Amino acid sequence: MIRDGKQHAWLSLPVDTLPAWAALNSVSFDGIKIGPLPGKEEHGCTVIAKRHLKGGEEPPLMTIPRELILSLERVHEHAKSDSDFRSVLDSLDGFGRTARGAILTFLLMQSFTACPSAPRKKGISSPFTEYLKYLPMEMLPTFWAPAECDLLTGTTLAPALTAKLNSLNREFEQLREATSSLPWCAEQWWDEVDGILEFDDWLQVDAFYRSRALEYPGVGDCMVPCIDMANHSSGTGTAAIYEVDDQGNAVLLLRDGKTVEENGEITITYGDKKGACEMLFSYGFIEDEMESARELFLDLSIPGDDPLGRAKAAVANCAPGFKIVESGDGVSWDGAYIWLICVNEEDGLSFQIQQTVEGNRELIATWKDEPVHGFEDFRSILEQDPLWDVYHLRAVSVLQERIASQLQDLYGSDDQVDAAQHGDGTNIRERAWHLAKRLRFLESELLEKAYSYYEDEKLQLMQSETVLRYLSGADAEQDEDFS
């Protein structure tokens, strides 16, 4: 929204003026600077060593005053002195009381306060009013063109991206509906002719938050100016860590034993265990050193012919799917939802309507006449059952079938992606095409590995005495297909 007119480019400040902003706001740098790496200017700004740095011997590389840590608490403090912003925040009710809702709304309001084309200024400026102008336009997949999004067909990012865009649309419409009753918002934000807010503005503040938010001990999810300029590197490549000092200030510290030469890059980690899909989704890149997708989430649905399907869906308190995680030579998985699919009434699962003390009616699940309080720990209950190997085999079979269908979708769209025209003169950017291709390759490798791993596990379970006895004792109508 910090634009020179509604249809003009994002207004930005040159990064070489950032030290002046830092000095004005009591941000200190020691032995570092922020700017592009020499010879890699096209990669944007990062944190660079101004001299030889040695871990364990250096003071904090950056110190950011606690009042600049953009957290839920800081947003509410700002609202006490900014009546315009407070009226917007209050109108959002519960959403405005969450860290995400409050911080995104604050960033939006600060962008509006800084907007040169706003007819009448609203809101009170803060250090973030100017700092936002140093941030680049984030080009996460939420900004990809439709043709670029089509490149993700068959990946786990495709449904996640669709769900995210739907969620952002709902949030934006909630913002519109909640603030339309405020006269200045109705006039300056939402007027059909002169209104300045667009959905892209909400996409942008979401991208700022999603790609730059850090989890600080004792603070929670927050944004910290200048430290959020540091790029990511995992494992031994991580040069620095971020902490909170005794005064509550945010500090950037060089790791013990780590050495960075002059003009070298000082990196932090955004999360060493995050998978390729999450890295691309939240940060817009995949590490060059990443040799595996690491993990991925596959959605599941309860079969339409399940007689208890509606009841299961009503009581499910877990994500509808499962996560595959590469672990050493094998593949592990986690997901409580699958156990709802794998057992039914003949096994001992049942549902009944119960009246609460308040007089309301609620649906209660029981397993062999014992109440089930949430399904997150349902596996531990099934593990105690004499037929555990049978349930386990059913789960592995469902897993493998779902993995096979994902592979089919992925490979079925490969030719279309390979043939897509990309680069100059097309509607698909070169970078987006290469990122999509890399994600597809990494996810297909993990899916292939998982399919093979669970095939071996399935064959082993088929030899279980419990399974053999169960199958031999089942009549023709109860025979199960584990092929």
Automatic annotation (TrEMBL):
Task: List GO terms (cellular component aspect).
Answer: nucleus
The record ties this protein, via InterPro entries, to: SET_dom_sf (IPR046341), SETD3_SETD6_MTase (IPR050600)
The GO molecular function terms of this record are: protein-lysine N-methyltransferase activity
Q: Which PANTHER family match?
A: SET DOMAIN-CONTAINING PROTEIN 8, UNCHARACTERIZED PUTATIVE METHYLTRANSFERASE
Which named protein is this? SET domain-containing protein
Record the organism. Answer: Aureobasidium pullulans
